[in-house]
Amino acid sequence: MKTVLRAIAVALLLAGASLVPWSHATAKEAAEVGDDPANERHMMSLAAELRCLQCQNQTLADSNAPLAVDLRQEIRELLAKGQTDEQVKAYLVARYGDFVLYRPPLQTNTMLLWFGPGLVLAGGLVALYLALKRRLARLEAMEREAQAGSTGALSAADSQRAKSLLEEENGEGSLS
Amino acid sequence: MAASKFRLTFLLPLLVFVAISGFLLKGLWLDPREIPSPLINKPAPDFHLESLETPGKIVDRKDMLGKVWMLNAWASWCVACREEHPVLVEFSRSAAIPIVGLNYKDTRMEGMRWLAQFGNPYVTSVFDEAGRVGIDYGVYAVPETFLIDKQGVVRFKQIGPVTPELLEKTILPLIRRLDA
Amino acid sequence: MIPEIGNFALMVATAVALTLGTLPIIGAQRGNLRWMALARPAARMMFLLVVIAASCLVASFLNNDFSVVYVATNSTRALPVQYKLAAFWGGHEGSMLLWLLILSFWMFTVSVFSTHLPREMIARILGVMGLIALGFLLFILLTSNPFDRLMPAVADGNDLNPLLQDPGMVAHPPMLYMGYVGFSVAFAFAIAALLGGNLDATWARWSRPWTTVAWMFLTIGICLGSAWAYYTLGWGGWWFWDPVENASFMPWLAGTALMHSLAVTEKRSGFKVWTVLLAIFAFSLSLLGTFLVRSGVLTSVHAFASDPRRGVFILLFLGVVIGGSLALFAWRAPKVGLGERFEIVSRESMLLTNNVLFLGAAACVLLGTLYPLMLDALGMGKISVGPPYFDVVFVPLMAPALFLMGIGPLARWRKANVPEIAARLKWAIAVSVICAVAVPLIEGKWSIMVALGVLLAAWIVSSSMVNLWSRVRPGEGGQIGAKLASLPRGYLGMLAAHVGVAVFIVGVTLVKGYEVEKDVRMDVGDTVAIGPYTAKFVGTSEGSGPNYLYLRGEFQILRGEKLVRTMYPEKHQFSSKSEPMTDAAIAPGITGDLYVSMGESVGKTAWVVRVYYKPFVDWIWGGCMIMAFGGLLALSDRRYRLAQRQSSAGIAAGAASRA
Q1: For a designed S-S bond to A97, which of B38, C259, C404, C442 qualifies (C-beta 3.0 to 4.6 A apart)?
Q2: pLDDT in tens, C534-557
Q3: d(CA C214, CA C186)
Q4: What residues of chain B lie within 8 A of the CB of A116, using their CB?
Q5: Which of B14, B26, B27 minimises the CB distance to C326?
Q6: How does pLDDT run across C410-430, given as a tens digit for each residue?
Q7: Between the ranges A149-158, C143-152, C330-339, C622-631, where is the mean pLDDT highest?
Q8: Is the pLDDT assigned to residue A156 strictly greater than 80?
């Protein structure tokens, strides 16, 4: 009796199986790698900001090093459990330190890093403005001195003419 | 007054360069790829895994509370581990502190064979086939060695082989301090 | 025997460099004609000797002489001949010899094309370059000799790193070095000017073409490196802000500022101090880059094997060259006169702002690159600074400069007429805004970042057109054709270079905004939709190349129902290395690239395949090449050709009247 039942079960199984299309027979739209493509993409975009610790300077997303593969799996699972990006990053930082983040966190020892460029730029432009003003003032002072001290200078008409000629030359000459 | 301030501006590039050179000089003796452990002075992560030698027997971190102990991450495929192993075997003979092995991403057969061939300094080895405990401990390059105190707090991590010099100059004094 | 000849040639070259670096410079200080006259022949002699040494190394490679350590570590019998040549610069020692070769080539060229320079100037210039060469020669002979012997010799070598066996490898380092090292000429001119105490417009006129050529090569070199990474590495990236990439980018930024500054010094006698400083900076950053790559101080995929001993040597060398030149600057520069007057808003001030912005950008890249080292050295922690940081910080820094690019060429010297500029640029602004709104919509998804990029690019192009139109507008002076033909090449070069920047921005913006990446599991017959195309996996085949075994996949690319092309990504297994190399198949196109690469095999016939669609990605390198072409145009300007024909006396007289 048991054997008969078993035989029927197998027969049904085979019959059912033959109805399922085999993957070789029909071409199909390729499936994205992984069981959950959305999670996979999320993991990869996060991994692109994280550092592979066994490599010479590669992201976790690009590296094939064993630890990178393991950590990607770790991240995959954490994200699937519903953890946020921040939580995943905190998880990794707790184990490997800030080194694992390619985007340096904003903290005391990275203040100079994050604010430096802006400060240098603002400071540079301000310094430039002040320097230009100072320079202009000095040149004007020198010009006034020269004018006051000059004798036998050009007549008023000639100096006007000279001035307008100079201005013409200052038109849009090319830089070259 | 104005002239000397002016002068200073011209000296600025040179001063910046000297500062940068200072950093570069110091940098020649640093390893940019060595990652210091964020676990120092933090509780050692838990583990609850089978031992390598006796499948079925569970090794738990809490078993080690109350004593100063050493955790050594190793693997049969790791070449540098072979370098430090004699040092560990010698050290284990002094029975100063127990050494627990963390067999990282290995197979039981290879791991046991390696220990049989090179000696077994470990009271037991945790069989971390998947490497999860390794990740919890921040292992990224075996061999790595941790010193953990009686309260289960990580006090020291060595990345790379343990040398006799390191043992003498750093590890043993630290053990003495932790034991006190 | 041959390696020994090469080694000996280097030793003789060291003696020549020592002579060149001392006697002519002292001679120029003291007015000693005989010593000054040594400069040219010594420079040419050095070039000859270094060429001999380089030829010996090439010969060793071609002869498969594996008794030479360097050949044994970088070559193998089966290596194709073009890669045996490229292996010259495949490792640290050889790349140092390449540096030296290119440096001595520049010295030779300067010695030939400088008949119009006063003899003190040429003596100092070649002398300074000789000192730099001396440093490199000592470095090579004492720490990095490519001619070291290996006893006993091996039967076959270790092979060149497979990643380097690529046409890009043959071209990228020489181009890059022509640029890097080329800035040594501008540097030498600057030092010579500081030593002689004469920083006038003529100095700027002489050093300008040399700077432009170096800048042009550096642009091409960086462009090739980026394109090579894209085509070779298999992950579709083209810039990673890796320390070595930054090491080449910083001199480029300083060099660009230098070119603009030199123009002002030449035309308006202004910015003399800035220009000298920038010339020192550009070359200093080149040298710094050389240090960073070889000292082990920073981690990088490009880094050569590190050795603290070499690091100390280069650092000492840096101290002497950079420290010395900056000290000379601090001493001499304050004595330089003020130059002519210009208002707060003028073309001069805009160019000065340009200098500040570009230098600021270079400083920002330097900060990010060195920051992890700085923190580590101070014991303040270990962090990583990567693309997320640089992308956020760099772009806002550069945006104002790109905006100025439209206004600057329209501004008058001395005093800019702002209302007039605004009126003329009205329609340029309108066009830019329309493009910024429309292009992202056309591409399918509006985003503020894409809009900003398109805005800047359209702004640059339309304002350049406004500028050009004002010069060729038919009216008094002739018709468009005549006016166009009579435009100075230097001006056209500027327009071309700026348009090149705009093209580059379009490429970067659109690729980042709209690229599509898919990682899929494909079995034979499966398809995947990518961008406007469908890729169908047909199957795989196997075979062997000159020194590797390959597995080749075949993919049909369809647009709708029509077969557009077939792509063959491969995996190469080199005999020496265990890790198979991915050779992605790339189908380039003006509106976008298709990129297919094979991952791992899963199951009997299925593979993990990565497909990308990268819209307008080739505009990135197209833009760079247009920039370089702009440099070439500027170089072909009439006055450089005229200068060669006129006698040195005539030029000197003309120069004196303008100074």
Answers
A1: B38
A2: 999 998 999 988 778 899 999 999
A3: 9
A4: none
A5: B14
A6: 998 888 888 989 998 998 999
A7: C622-631
A8: no
The residue ranges of DSSP E strands in C379-498, in sequence order, are: none
In angstroms, how far is CA B60 from the centroid of its own chain? 19
- Give the mean model confidence (pLDDT) for residues C261-279: 87
Query: Cis link prior to B121 (omega < 30° from 0)?
Result: no
Q: Which amino acid is at C611?
A: V
Mark residue C20 as left, alpha or beta (left: phi above 0; alpha: psi -120 to 50; beta: remaining). alpha
Among the partner-chain residues B7, B29, B36, the one whose CB lies closest to the CB of C382 is B36
pLDDT at A157 over 70: no
Report CB contact under 8 Å: B140, A53: yes
Fold of A33-105: Helicase, Ruva Protein; domain 3 (1.10.8)
Rounded to two decimals, the pTM is 0.89
Question: Using CA atoms, how far apart are residues C241 and C221, in angstroms rounded to an integer?
Answer: 16
Which helix (H) or strand (E) element contains residue C93?
helix C92-112
Q: What's the pLDDT tens digit per position in C32-87? A: 999 999 999 999 999 999 999 999 999 999 999 999 999 998 898 888 888 888 89
- Burial (CB count within 10 angstroms: exposed 0-12, middle 13-18, buried 19+), residue B169: exposed
Tokens of C172: 């990228």
Whether the ω angle into residue B143 lies within 30 degrees of 0, i.e. cis, is yes
Inter-chain touch C526–A58, beta carbons under 8 Å? no
Is the CB of residue C619 less than 8 Å from the CB of residue C454? no
Subunits with 3+ Cβ pairs within 8 Å of A are B, C
Q: Which of A108, A104, A91, A112 is nearest to A49 (CA)?
A: A104
Cβ–Cβ contact A175 with C under 8 A:
yes
Mean pLDDT, range C276-289, rounded to an integer: 95
Confidence tier at C454 by pLDDT (50, 70, 90): very high
Q: Domain limits of chain B?
A: 48-179
**Long-range contacts from B75-78, C-beta under 8 angstroms, 24+ separation:** B75/B103, B75/B104, B75/B105, B75/B106, B75/B111, B75/B142, B76/B106, B76/B107, B76/B110, B76/B111, B76/B113, B76/B114, B77/B106, B77/B110, B78/B142, B78/B143
| Spatial CB neighbours of B31, under 8 Å, sequence gap ≥ 6 | none
Q: Which helix (H) or strand (E) holds C521?
A: strand C516-522
- Tokens coding A102: 């390619």
Give chain C's mean pLDDT: 89
Report in angstroms the alpha-carbon separations of C469 from C221, C289, C460, C476, C563.
33, 42, 14, 14, 44
Task: Provide the β-strand partners of residue C566.
Answer: C556
Res. C262: pLDDT tops 80: yes
Do the Cβ atoms of B29 and C370 come closer than 8 Å? no
Mind listing the pLDDT tens digit for each residue in C361-372?
Answer: 999 999 999 999
Report how far residue C314's alpha carbon sits from residue B21's, in angstroms, rounded to the nearest whole number.
11
- What's the length of chain B? 180
CATH number listed for the domain at residues B48-179: 3.40.30.10
A125 contacts in C (CB within 8 Å)?
Answer: 353, 356
Query: Which tokens hold the place of C203?
Result: 């100095």
- The amino acid at residue B136 is D
State how far the alpha carbon of C447 is from the alpha carbons of A38, C106, C513, C514, C637, in Å. Answer: 22, 47, 8, 10, 42
Measured between beta carbons, the chain A residues lying within 8 angstroms of C299 are: 56-57
% of chain C at pLDDT higher than 70: 95
Residues in chain A closer than 8 A to B39 (CB atoms): 95
Which residues 6+ apart lie within 8 Å of C51 measured at CB?
C101, C104
Q: Inter-chain contact B28–C308, Cβ cutoff 8 Å? A: yes
| Contact at CB, A95 and B105, closer than 8 angstroms | no
Local structure of C530: helix, strand or coil:
strand
